[in-house]
Amino acid sequence: MESSLDIDKEKRVWDILETVSDPEIPVLSIVDLGIVRGIELMDEPTSLTISITPTYTGCPAMDMMAAHIRIALADAGFLKVQINQTLSPAWTTDWMSEAGKIKLKAYGIAAPVAKAFNKEYLEDLQMECPNCGSTQTKLISEFSSTACKALFQCKDCLEPFDYFKCH
Ligand SMILES: [Zn+2]
């Protein structure tokens, strides 16, 4: 049975993880993204295990993210942190919080609308321009600044924008 002390501690860890942002989309925390799958408290007060599922297999941002998690937790006194990567089930945008999707849009990245993608799918996609709200958009590139994003352009205001396409 979990003691109330453990519940407090677990909440503290979640609060700390809320402050760790995604290296690629700094407005989103890793909790917003739904990357953190679980926290396991260990018998030793300063140690814990965190399970994370990367948004995109092979995202180079993953190592950086793990480093940021360690630094944030070490600041709070959690010195022995084990980070496990869970690859199955794969991350889907369904795990993103509603707050995360709203922040993503405010940041100028179209929020993900579906899980699967391929080039044909992206070309047919009716995107909403984060700049002017127009749905007259076209796919410029399957890959934008990172493999996780596709680049679109608005036909009305001509503003280019990223679409977060990971699954
Ligand atoms: Zn526009």
Number of domains: 2
Number of helices: 5
Straight-line N-to-C gap: 37 Å
List the uncertain runs: none
Question: Given this structure, which CATH class of the largest domain is correct?
Answer: Alpha Beta
Mean pLDDT: 83
User: What proportion strand?
Assistant: 15-25%
Q: Rounded to an integer, what's the Rg over CA atoms? A: 18 Å
CATH topology of the largest domain: GMP Synthetase, Chain A, domain 3
- Determine the structural class based on helices, strands and strand pairing: alpha/beta
In short:
This protein is α/β, with parallel strands linked by helices. It has helices at 4-18, 30-33, 61-75, 98-106, 119-124, and strands at 36-41, 47-52, 80-85, 109-110, 137-141, 149-154, 160-164. A hairpin with a 5-residue loop joins strand 1 and strand 2.
